[in-house]
Write a structure and sequence with these properties.
heterodimer; A: mainly beta; 6-stranded mixed beta sheet; 5-stranded antiparallel beta sheet; 11 strands; globular; B: mainly beta; 7-stranded mixed beta sheet; 4-stranded antiparallel beta sheet
Chain lengths: 113, 115
């Protein structure tokens, strides 16, 4: 069975500081990994995905994530936080068919001026 | 621009009522999904459909049913609403073709309150 654990339900950073949101997964098969972002009163939007190939994945809005198989991690980073990054972020893992996606509990990112 | 729309943003229903949540996508996607989102639990899959009239149970199907009569429309039905079904409901769609089938596009959600 697949599972996702996001470390920290809330993360607060200052504007311009590094953003690091942590995600660990469990999967018995090669995982397909995702980060989604949810802005207030909106649905989820895909930030980036890892399926195969390069383990460092770049997404929209300057975010990137690195797949580390040995650590079963897929942490999300951004070098410099912007106020507009304040949102809830979800890590997710999918089966090979793309039908059953398991989402983490979410991490709410606060950005201080 | 791709779009998934849901019939209501907010809905208030009474216990025991039959509730219909509608979702429409304009991207010609084969796959459609219904999730519920609760604080601290993330999103949990209720049902999904990979073709017209086809449906599969997700992780929490109890108390729900679905209908997909047309490719673009996927309905979630609460046969007899209960207070523990108060939640945010999110619809999503994705294409079937390889390489992009993992990319789910979400609607804005329906916040359902059952009193």
């Amino acid at each position: 069975a697949q599972s996702v654990t996001q470390l920290g339900s809330h993360v607060s950073v200052s504007e311009g500081a590094l953003v690091l949101l942590r995600c660990n997964y469990s999967s018995s098969v090669p995982p397909y990994l995702f980060w989604y972002v949810q802005y207030p009163n909106q649905g989820l939007q895909l930030l980036l995905k890892y399926t195969t190939g390069a383990t460092l994945v770049k997404g929209i809005n300057g975010f990137e994530a690195e797949f580390k198989k040995s650590e079963t991690s897929f942490h999300l980073t951004k070098p410099s936080a912007h106020m507009s990054d304040a949102a809830e972020y979800f890590c997710a893992v999918s089966d090979s068919g793309g039908f059953k996606t398991i989402f983490g509990a979410g991490t709410r990112l606060f950005v201080k001026a | 621009d791709v779009k998934v729309t849901q019939s209501s943003r907010y809905l208030v229903k009474r216990t025991g009522e039959k509730v219909f949540l509608e979702c429409v996508q304009d991207m010609d996607h084969e796959n459609m999904f219904w999730y519920r989102q609760d604080p601290g639990l993330g999103l949990r899959l209720i049902y999904f459909s990979y073709d017209v009239k086809m449906k599969e149970k997700g992780d929490i199907p109890e108390g729900y049913s679905v209908s997909r009569e047309k490719k673009e429309r996927f309905s979630l039905i609460l046969e007899s609403a209960s207070t523990n079904q108060t939640s945010m409901y999110l619809c999503a769609s994705s294409p079937a073709r390889s390489g992009r089938r993992y990319e789910q596009y979400f609607g804005p959600g329906t916040r359902l309150t059952v009193t």
